[in-house]
């Protein structure tokens, strides 16, 4: 019997317990899933960073920690976590992110906000075609790539940027510092889907925002620290950036006094762009445990040096 510890909030346990058990059964795994195993007997830990588990050192027999979250920045530096760490790459989460990003890109492209604001006026304004609206996606991991490919299928000319070189059909891929300059130049809409690491903090700052064409729009469903908030507010005030749609923030919930709430050119959404979906994430967890038991490589293994 494989012993699996569920280390997340009590609310998550109520939501995930039965779908996890069903996922294990469908994968042909005999699993004893609990919240109260003796730590030294545990084979795998299903983990969420906002749960109670902070010290992994008692889990001496643990073969892997399997996160329910896509982001691992809150745990990757934990020195007691010496076993393999796998992040969540959930097809349900990916689908949700693609839909959210595509919706807000199309909202900007079609100028839907203007149509809503002028409901009492007859002021025809025909938007350009998608092929005339350059979009840049910063970050070409699983989520960034899926969003970039969907936007390209809708007809947008899409440029993608990543730290290391990548080749994706239909996407103009850039990398490195020079590549970032090229990716920002001409981008009318920028989507941020980078991980939160020391190398990506304040990726959009006064300097990089100035490289964008005047009137560009920003969409951030990635991580709050990717943006220098003061620099973005200054760019919004000056008109360098026409509008920003922000789903993630350095402090969540976003404090009531934060300028983003009242700024006329900011849309705030409360970290809803993508959520781990119970049934599909249970299937991902079950597959990784199956792999661990079969001696196969884990999926979505975190590179501790890169931080994702």
Automatic annotation (TrEMBL):
Domain D-isomer specific 2-hydroxyacid dehydrogenase NAD-binding: 109-273
Domain of life of the organism encoding this protein: Bacteria
Key word Oxidoreductase present: yes
Record keywords: NAD, Oxidoreductase, Pyruvate
SUPFAM superfamilies: NAD(P)-binding Rossmann-fold domains (SSF51735)
InterPro entries: D-isomer_DH_CS (IPR029753), D-isomer_DH_NAD-bd (IPR006140), NAD(P)-bd_dom_sf (IPR036291)
CDD domains given in the database record: GDH_like_2
Keyword NAD (UniProt): yes
Any Pfam family matching the protein: 2-Hacid_dh_C
One Gene Ontology term of the molecular function aspect: NAD binding
Family matches, as PANTHER family: 2-HACID_DH_C DOMAIN-CONTAINING PROTEIN, D-ISOMER SPECIFIC 2-HYDROXYACID DEHYDROGENASE NAD-BINDING DOMAIN-CONTAINING PROTEIN
Protein name stated in the entry: Glyoxylate/hydroxypyruvate reductase A
Organism: Parasedimentitalea maritima
């Amino acid at each position: 019997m494989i012993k699996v510890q569920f280390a997340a909030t009590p609310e998550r346990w109520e939501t995930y317990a039965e779908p996890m058990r069903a996922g294990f059964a469908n994968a042909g795994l005999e699993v004893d899933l609990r919240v109260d195993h003796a730590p030294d007997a545990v084979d795998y830990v299903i983990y969420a960073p906002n749960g109670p588990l902070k010290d992994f050192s008692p889990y001496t027999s643990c073969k892997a920690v399997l996160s329910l979250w896509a982001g691992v920045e809150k745990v990757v530096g934990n020195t007691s976590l010496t076993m393999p760490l796998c992040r969540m790459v959930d097809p349900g989460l990916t689908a949700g992110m693609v839909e959210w990003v595509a919706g807000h890109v199309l909202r900007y492209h079609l100028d839907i906000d203007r149509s809503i604001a002028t409901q009492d006026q007859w002021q025809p304004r025909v938007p350009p075609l998608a092929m005339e609206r350059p979009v840049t996606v910063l970050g070409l991991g699983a989520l960034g790539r899926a969003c970039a490919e969907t936007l390209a299928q809708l007809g947008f000319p899409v440029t993608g940027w990543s730290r290391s070189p990548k080749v994706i059909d239909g996407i103009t891929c850039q990398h490195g510092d020079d590549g970032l300059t090229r990716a920002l130049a001409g981008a009318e809409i920028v989507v941020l889907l980078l991980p939160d690491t020391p190398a990506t903090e304040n990726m959009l700052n006064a300097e990089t925002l100035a490289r964008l064409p005047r009137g560009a729009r920003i969409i951030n469903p990635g991580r709050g620290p990717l943006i220098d908030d003061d620099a973005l507010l200054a760019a919004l005030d000056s008109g360098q950036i026409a509008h920003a749609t922000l789903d993630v923030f350095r402090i969540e919930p976003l404090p009531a006094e934060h300028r983003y709430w009242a700024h006329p050119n900011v849309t705030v959404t409360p970290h809803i762009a993508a959520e781990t979906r119970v049934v599909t994430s249970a299937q991902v967890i079950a597959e990784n445990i199956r792999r661990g038991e079969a001696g196969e490589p884990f999926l979505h293994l975190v590179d501790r040096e890169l931080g994702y």
